[in-house]
Amino acid sequence: MKPLEGGIVSGQVILISGEPGIGKSTLLLQISSNISAEKRVLYITGEESAYQVYLRGQRIDAVSENLYIFPETELETIIQTIKNFKPDFIIVDSVQTIYSADLESAPGSVSQVREVSSRLTELAKSTGIPVIIVGQVTKEGSIAGPKVLEHVVDTVAQFEGERGHAYRVLKVIKNRFGASGEMAVFSMGEKGLKEVEDPSSFFLSERPEGKPGSITFPYTEGAKPVLVEVQALVSKTVYAVPQRKTQGFDINRLSILIAIIEKEVGIFLKDKDIFVNIVGGITVKEPAVDLPVALAIISSIIDRPVPTNLTAFGEIGLTGEVRSVYYTEHRIKEAKKFGFDKIVVPYSTDIEDKALIKVKNIQEAVGYLR
Predict the structure, then answer these.
(1) 63, 201 Cβ separation under 8 angstroms
(2) Are residues 357 and 342 part of one domain?
(3) How many CB atoms lie within 10 A of CB 263?
(4) Most CB within 10 Å of its CB: which of 101, 171, 264, 282?
(5) What is the per-residue pLDDT for 6?
């Protein structure tokens, strides 16, 4: 996995989380197949039968002589099997299905998840066998089970995407043995997941030209930026209370940006429905997306397209000021790589480049739309 630069360390415990049906099992089966080319891999499945996993393995060409499937949910049996079999690598799919016979609670409960994760981590550290644990995600987007699960493991990776989209994003949220914030983009096909080598081109390939409410944003939570499209649609409401809906963006943050736009830019939005979408099913939580979202909303309301050669990033404060963000140099480099020669950035940016448009507040940024 490229997000884990430097590889996987002996005894490392990796948690991969994601919504059910997003493709976690497919990803791990492909990882298992690659590793089994040189090492013995034990794939413990608590959600599917061995035959179901085998059928998937056949479909995506992930069947290997060194890949062993073990359908089991009792923790004590799993640990004993690992000690007897002595594999080089272990996959546990998923932690919510495994239970310890020493506890009376049901699988997936707080106490069971805590016990299972702790004992698997202890086993990995004592034997030096790397372990990847799958964790399901709740509707709220958090890992099902206790928060302690994230603290016990060495690495936390999040697998994101929409079932209706062909691509998935793997983000490293925590990594004791390397950089966090790294990510990789995959395309889902009949033969499983395939890494997208140039995700910026991939995400921008269908971006409409000359349409209001669309802007490109250099997104990154690590050293590898990706250009994504931010869309906004503003229309007159027919309801007593206007709609505010988002996909891939925090709806609470949207409410704050709307209030800032009304007060600082002087655009009345209380009678407007506002919809914001991060194209491609990506969920963006970093504050640098504030400025692109605000500009997309304003572009839609004034019915004027954002120039195709313009991109932007920056956090917006409550008084309308545009604040600095991390990885500025990486974002600028990626944007220029794809021909963006107008990059709206916070005024405090200490990089000198003729492509940069430094703005102190949202009013100055809006000026480049009119």
Answers:
(1) no
(2) yes
(3) 12
(4) 282
(5) 59
Q: Which residue has the tokens 């997208």?
A: 196
Q: 204-207 long-range CB contacts below 8 Å, 24 or more apart?
A: 204/228, 204/229, 204/338, 207/279
Place of tokens 């020493």: 102
Give the predicted TM-score (pTM) of the model: 0.81
Burial of 48 (0-12, 13-18, 19+ CB in 10 A): middle
Instruction: Write out residues in the chain with pLDDT < 50, as ranges.
Output: 146
Number of H helices, E strands in the chain: 10, 18
Please indicate, yes or no, whether residues 210 and 150 belong to a single structural domain of this protein. no
Query: Cα 120–124–127 angle (5° rounding)?
Result: 130
pLDDT, one tens digit per residue, over 11-35 is 999 999 888 888 899 999 999 999 9
Whether the CB-CB separation of 196 and 187 falls below 8 Å is answered with yes
Q: Are residues 96 and 192 in the same domain?
A: yes
Which domain covers residue 168, as residue numbers? 13-197
pLDDT for the residue numbered 7? 78
CA torsion, ordered 72, 74, 76, 81, to nearest 10 deg: 0
**What pLDDT score was predicted for residue 148?**
65
Same domain, 362 and 318: yes
Q: Which residue type is seen at 206?
A: E
Tell me the CA distances in angstroms from 40 to 130, 133, 248, 338, one per residue in order.
Answer: 12, 17, 39, 43
* Cα-based distances in Å from 150 to 3, 10, 117: 18, 19, 10
Q: What is the largest CA-CA distance in the chain?
A: 71
Distance spanning both ends of the chain, measured CA to CA: 44
